[in-house]
Design a protein that fits this description.
This protein has 480 residues and is mainly alpha-helical. It is built from 18 helices and four strands. Among the domains are: 165-270; 281-324, no CATH class; 364-478, Up-down Bundle (Butyryl-CoA Dehydrogenase, subunit A, domain 3), CATH 1.20.140. The termini are far apart.
């Protein structure tokens, strides 16, 4: 028994000695590393050593221009890390503090719009590119650190003086857009509260939820971080608020402000930096009053241009007819000037033109129903809305009949021009014949451009006179 006790005591003593030896062996490298690190850092460079001195900031790290050089870790950190690895991690309390701003900057997270990163994000600019103004005074910053606020100096430093004031304008414009959409949301919420059991109440709730999310996202994500993405989210939200009202059987309030309908490009960018809206532009082979569309006729930028790709033109012929030939447009004569002048007897021709007998009583939409395709047969059907069916043959006479008359007149003009060319080759002077042909061609051009059906009596008179002048010119050219 005594022998066994002695044996156990010896074993415990040996174990204790072994443990101490192991701890000492493990601690030796750490102590050596700690003692050698300062010596290595402070040791003078060897003669001929061309390697660069240690940097204050680790290679590749972003350093704010207003910050002092970052100290080396061994100068500030204790030799041992805290026992709990995340004990001093700010993110334990400040969870996803700036995630809304980051998502806005990256152009992600909004509803209904495809991702559109900020132009500056695409250039890989970080927060400190714009946040350059010190928030704290130097004495305070020495204790609590420094926070950097956005400053217009950063904009001007890169883009020049013409960008001065742009950030403030962005913020004000987005605020105005949020207010417009907010008023529509309030109206839709009131309509929904008044009709909670409406068959489409669920659809209206979903539309309003998406609308309100986008408005909050633009506000809390600070839309100026990606202003065009933010404006597009508000444009979508504005449309959804109107759709919610329509789903409940209500008429949404009309919004004349082009901002929330997609007209924000000019206000946010073009106008502040002096880009002038072209007075006239081309669409295919047609020239149209570009500035009037934007400033007078209420067309928004994104009606014809992409909201995602700069300068991309997305309009189609259907886009044009959707406005020009829509039931809401009563300004047909603003574009169809030739037809209007002919219909109302205001065209300048070789002979006086009287207005159409219906000019004072029937507007364009009286004969043109833009809810259907504009064929001659469809237009002819409008006649019987006011007249007896016996007038239907007149529609054919005013269309196909005049087609034949114009072809006959064109042939007469062509024959006269050929005779004039032959007369010139023979050396004869045919000035009178040339004048007659010009008058005939002008009359034919008026009828072709204005369409005979808009003033059949005037068309018949002009074509008849044109053929007579062409035949007279031919006779003069041939010497008959």
């Amino acid at each position: 028994m005594i022998r066994r006790a002695i044996t156990v005591t010896v074993l415990f003593a040996l174990a204790a000695l072994g443990a101490e030896a192991g701890v000492a062996a493990a601690a030796a490298p750490r102590a050596a590393a700690r003692s050698s690190a300062p010596a290595a850092a402070s040791a003078p460079a060897q003669r001929g050593d061309t390697s660069p001195a240690p940097e204050s900031t680790p290679p590749g790290a972003s350093q704010h221009p207003g910050m002092s050089p970052m100290p080396r870790p061994e100068e500030t950190m204790p030799p041992e890390r805290p026992h709990v690895e995340s004990e001093l991690d700010c993110k334990n309390c400040h969870v996803s503090k700036h995630q809304g701003v980051v998502r806005m900057y990256l152009g992600r997270g909004g509803r209904g719009a495809k991702p559109v990163p900020s132009h500056m994000s695409q250039l890989r600019l970080e927060c400190i590119a714009c946040h350059v103004a010190e928030k704290e005074p130097e004495a305070t910053a020495a204790i609590v650190g420094q926070t950097y606020r956005p400053s217009e100096k950063a904009c001007i430093g890169c883009h020049g003086e013409r960008y001065r004031g742009m950030v403030g304008q962005w913020s004000g414009t987005l605020g105005k857009m949020r207010a417009i959409v907010g008023s529509r949301v309030t109206a839709a919420r009131a309509a929904l509260a008044a009709s909670p059991k409406h068959p489409k109440a669920g659809q209206a709730r979903k539309l309003l939820a998406d609308t309100e999310f986008n408005v909050r996202f633009v506000e809390l994500g600070r839309g100026v971080h990606n202003v065009f993405y933010a404006a597009d989210l508000l444009r979508l939200a504005n449309g959804w608020a109107g759709d919610a009202m329509r789903a409940l059987g209500k008429t949404p309030a009309k919004v004349d402000d082009a901002l929330v309908r997609g007209g924000y490009c000019a206000v946010l960018c073009h106008e502040p930096i002096g880009v002038k809206t072209p007075d006239v532009a081309n669409y295919g082979t047609k020239r149209f009053p570009h500035a009037r569309h934007a400033k007078e006729l209420g067309a928004a930028c994104t009606t014809c241009h992409s909201a995602d790709v700069h300068k991309a033109f997305t309009a189609t012929p259907a886009t044009c007819t959707g406005c020009h030939h829509g039931p809401q447009n009563e300004r047909c004569e603003g574009c169809h000037k030739d037809e209007s002048a002919f219909y109302r007897g205001r065209v300048k021709a070789a002979q006086p033109i009287a207005p159409n007998l219906m000019a004072d009583a029937v507007a364009c939409a009286g004969c043109h129903d833009w809810s259907t395709r504009q064929t001659r047969a469809a237009i002819a059907q409008k006649c019987v809305a006011c007249h007896e069916p016996t007038v239907m043959p007149l529609a054919t006479e005013w269309t196909a009949g005049f087609d034949a008359d114009m072809k006959k007149t064109a042939a007469a003009v062509g024959a006269a021009e050929a005779a004039i060319r032959r007369a010139r080759k023979s050396g004869r002077r045919v000035a009178d014949a040339e004048a007659l042909v010009r008058e005939a061609k002008d009359s034919l051009a008026i009828v072709r451009s204005a369409k005979p059906a808009h003033n059949p009596l005037a068309a018949d008179g002009l074509l008849t006179a044109a053929r007579k002048k062409a035949e007279e010119a031919r006779a003069k050219a041939t010497g008959r």
